[in-house]
Write a structure and sequence with these properties.
Number of strands of chain C: 0
Shape of chain B: rod-shaped
Strand content of chain B: under 5%
Oligomer: heterotrimer
Order of helices and strands of chain B: HH
Number of helices of chain C: 9
Shape of chain C: globular
Radius of gyration of chain B: 26 Å
Radius of gyration of chain C: 21 Å
Chains: A mainly alpha, B mainly alpha, C mainly alpha
Helix content of chain C: over 70%
Order of helices and strands of chain C: HHHHHHHHH
Structural class of chain C: mainly alpha
Largest interface: B-C, 27 and 39 residues
Chain lengths: 222, 63, 257
């Protein structure tokens, strides 16, 4: 089982690096969306610092959601997903491997680039540190919850819009606690409560989301 | 009586809430009742068509 | 042995499967609908009269508080119906009872309507109280997110062509949603207490006076019965349509009632 888990991770990573756009596009999207806000609202330092945490997090949310298509789509089209369903290994473990790769490919680059965007939005050093921690705890949750939604719509031709309807409401708790933590740390307040919540939610999602995702995949591929 | 309906100065708010509730709930309740009639009509037409087709097939066989 | 075959050997489950057969459901529900429907109408009229004219004026909010006799039961129903959808969806997934799927999908538009009603009456109540049609109050925000969940459910159902697959996908979505609702509620409430200073956020005070509680409860029971009647009518339509090639539906349509 561990063998299958790790070889699937290796395979998916290799596939992702072959199509570099899968890694780069969500990242570009993330950067562009954040750039739009100073242009749309105001370049004022105080305003941007006030709304920055929320904007960066909303952009991360959208980037994670739009990249979900790469999670199952190509495997669905070439039949790999069906083989996964038939394999002797538990589907939820294989699904978890795919989610981990998805996070490594889309969530992780966002974390790496976030200090840059934090600086552009005039966040101070501590807030940027918090931003990275919340992204580290929060983006895996986005991949995990998104996987459930993606599994439900994978067999549909026009699933993109529907996916956002299904997934975005479920992302709200992550958005609330993360952007609030960043804002609070900028004001010099304690953020341990928010981080504990995010950590608890992450563990909760790691345990349950793969099960729900594999159930959804079975329905979609029936 | 009129005073009772005015609800202090909040008459418009209270009555529009109750009005909306009545309208919405009536629509949600009566829509499926009308749908049922449509389904009955549709099905009875379908069944009649099926019987007609079967009869025609029989006639052709006899010919 | 899977859950279905195991269940079919159990006498209690055998009875349930028999009862949940479309034909029996159609016959029995037909008898129940008028009872639920008329009882609902009577209770809703009594509750409205009691709430509008008999219950005393609130010393803080004046007569505007009378909106809560609609708003609060509607908000309760919006939560309750989502729970029903998740539970019946789970029953449909595990024991493959078609009727449970039908109940779940018949419930969604009713639940969405109640959620919408709770939102709009909340806004109407908020106008004289807060001076604005919309305030990012925890309850209203949570209700808005619930409406999104309902819309997602209905959109997913509409997008999948095969009704069996749609029912199963929607069941999974409803279960995921129901697990998330407490988390969403908690986070929205937490967010609200941080950002909102002191505003009047209490629709239903814990220390509500008995003369106000009675119409509230009458309305709540009335809404429940209304839901029971409407969901049965909707489920009957779906059953009829799904079973259109069966003998009993043909006989029923020919007899014309």
């Amino acid at each position: 089982m561990y063998n299958a888990f790790f070889s699937l991770i290796k395979r998916d990573l290799r596939m992702a690096f072959r199509h570099k756009s899968e890694i780069l596009n969500p990242l570009f999207f993330f950067v562009i969306v954040v750039t739009l806000f100073p242009l749309g609202i105001s370049p004022d330092k105080h305003i941007l610092a006030e709304i920055g945490p929320g904007i960066i997090w909303v952009a991360a949310l959208l980037a994670a959601m739009l990249s979900l298509d790469s999670l199952f789509r190509s495997d669905y089209e070439d039949g790999t997903l069906e083989l996964m369903l038939l394999s002797e290994h538990p589907l939820s473990v294989l699904v978890l491997a795919k989610i981990i790769v998805h996070w490594l490919v889309t969530g992780f680059p966002i974390i790496v680039f976030s200090p840059l965007l934090g600086t552009v939005m005039f966040l101070n050093g501590e807030a940027i540190e918090t931003l990275m921690i919340t992204l580290l705890l929060g983006t895996p949750i986005l991949s995990l919850i998104g996987a459930i939604g993606m599994a439900l719509v994978v067999a549909l031709k026009r699933g993109g819009m529907l996916l956002s309807l299904l997934v975005l409401p479920l992302y709200i708790p992550v958005l609330i606690f993360s952007s609030n933590a960043v804002g609070s740390s900028m004001a010099g307040l304690s953020i341990s409560g928010q981080l504990y919540f995010l950590a608890a939610f992450l563990i909760f999602c790691i345990t349950l989301a793969p099960i729900a995702t594999s159930a959804a995949l079975r329905v979609s591929l029936e | 009586m009129l005073e009772l309906l005015q609800m202090g100065k909040y008459g418009a708010y209270v009555w529009s809430s109750y009005g909306l509730a009545v309208a919405l709930m009536a629509y949600v309740a009566f829509k499926p009742l009308f749908d049922k009639k449509t389904i009955f009509k549709e099905l009875s037409m379908k069944y009649r068509r099926e019987v007609n087709l079967a009869n025609k097939a029989k006639e052709q066989e006899q010919l | 042995m899977n859950a279905v075959t195991k269940a079919k050997t159990n006498p209690v489950m055998k009875f349930i499967y028999h009862f949940a057969s479309p034909k029996h459901f159609y016959r029995i529900s037909g008898k129940l609908v008028p009872w639920f429907g008329w009882l609902a109408v009577i209770l809703l009229i009594i509750g409205s009269i009691d709430g509008l004219f008999v219950a005393p004026v609130d010393y803080q909010q004046g007569d505007s508080y009378r909106i809560i006799f609609i708003h609060v039961p509607a908000a309760w129903m919006s939560m309750f119906i989502y729970m029903v959808m998740a539970v019946s969806g789970a029953i449909g997934l595990i024991w493959k009872i078609k009727l449970a799927d039908v109940v779940a999908s018949s419930s969604a538009p009713i639940g969405a309507a109640f959620t919408f009603l709770a939102l709009v009456t909340g806004a109407i109540w908020g106008k004289p109280m807060w001076g604005a049609w919309w305030v990012w109050d925890a309850r209203l925000t949570a209700e808005l997110i619930l409406l999104f969940l309902y819309l997602g459910f209905m959109a997913l159902e509409a997008a999948i062509e095969d009704p069996r697959a749609a029912a199963r996908a929607c069941a999974i979505l409803a279960i995921v949603g129901v697990v998330n609702i407490p988390i969403i509620h908690y986070s929205v409430e937490w967010w609200n207490t941080l950002h909102q200073g002191a505003t009047v956020t209490k629709f239903d005070k814990p220390s509500i006076h008995i003369s106000m509680l009675i119409p509230l409860l009458i309305m709540a029971v009335g809404f429940k019965l209304y839901y029971a009647a409407v969901v049965l009518v909707r489920a009957r339509n779906k059953v009829l349509y799904a079973e259109q090639n069966n003998r009993w539906v043909k006989d029923l349509v020919k007899s014309g009632c």
